[in-house]
Amino acid sequence: MRIKISVLILALVLAVSATEAQELFGGAEKTLADHWGLGDNESGNDLFVIHTYKPVYLLLGKVSNNVNRMPHSSNPERSLSETIPLNKTEQMFQLSLKTKVANDFFGGAIWVGYTQVSFWQVFNTDFSRPFRETNYEPEAMLIFPLKYRLLGMEGVFVGVGFNHQSNGRTNPLSRSWNRIIAQVALQGKNTSVVFKPWWRLPEAASDDDNPGIENYMGRSELLLTWQKGVHNVSCTAHHSLRFGDDNRGNVQVAYAVQVLDNLKIRAQVFSGYGESMIDFNHRQTVVGVGLSLVEW
Hints:
Elements: H1 2-26, H2 32-35, E1 51-52, E2 56-64, E3 89-105, E4 108-120, E5 131-145, E6 149-150, E7 153-166, E8 176-188, E9 191-200, E10 220-228, E11 231-239, E12 249-260, E13 263-273, E14 283-294
Antiparallel strand pairs: 1-3, 2-3, 2-14, 3-4, 4-5, 5-7, 6-7, 7-8, 8-9, 9-10, 10-11, 11-12, 12-13, 13-14
């Protein structure tokens, strides 16, 4: 069932992605303001139109230096007692879309988004090639356009929203959290910066799948992007905003180059905790190469 749902969403996102990518490479480079319907050439008033959100890509192969074969949590009911025969090499794909559902809401606009990331042990023939993990991330965001200048960059918007992320699994592999996320966005020539601090909504200890997840996957995100012509570089970093034993996080650097119409080759490196929710407290470095249709 998860595979069928993923295929349907993939078909929908690919159709939207191709259209938006055609707009991107058919003319001037698309800015962060354009991405949210705030650019000079955007009406910004169309509701319930599907847009791409985060990058849409498929890593044909990625390799981990430290596979998490025994996921665990400090909640004793969320830990395995035996190892899983996982390969260090697998495939991964991300689908992401958003749509605006309301205008002029206290001066802002309400957007809803959905992102899905799947990790597929397609090379693991001895273990029947399973989907190792799929993370689902629906969210709602209130975005306020804002114009100011800071450090030579132009302010684009500020926002606040509700975010749910989970892997949709049963115990002992269930992982989830809910967050209130703020965001501030700036853009300059060929560059953009988005900072997102968040607060995790508390849960009862018995219901918490992943106690202390914010000390691993972080309490904030910093996204830096640069694009020019056929080249796109992005760096995404998460940090716990703590020191000492809780000084943790992760960083992912990706490079994509357009090779044929809307098709791009993408290479990325991830290092740290929480590549997926089941790995929230597991540290590894992962290198992958694949194809993408949409970048930041």
